[in-house]
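Researcher: I'm preparing a figure for a lab meeting and need a structural model of a single chain. I don't have an experimental structure, so a prediction will have to do for now. The sequence is pasted below. Please return the structure as tokens so I can convert it later.
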Amino acid sequence: MLMVGVCAVVMMLGYAAMLISGYVIAGHRARAAADLAALSGATTASQGGDPCDAARANATAHRAQVVACKRVGDQIDFVVTVTASVAVALTAPGLPSTVSSVAYAGSEEVR
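Model: Understood. Here is the structure written out token by token.
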């Protein structure tokens, strides 16, 4: 009986570790996807293109989804803000199924 209890505790701890690891990995992926998408959007904006289209394409390539994208400023001085979302592989009832991250990129005036 004691062995059954120990096995149950070990299994629950293993499940909790897998669940936490899934959220940590999804958070890292969301941050990386948002950063790369914002940089891609800023580069495209500096070349005269649409930054949000480039950000969406880059995020899709990194298995993420752009939730929000905004460009503020003019052609010379601007900031692109991207919010990327990544799905969590293993979820539990009551916990969110996606993790989001925000990144900023833009032009920097050289003086």
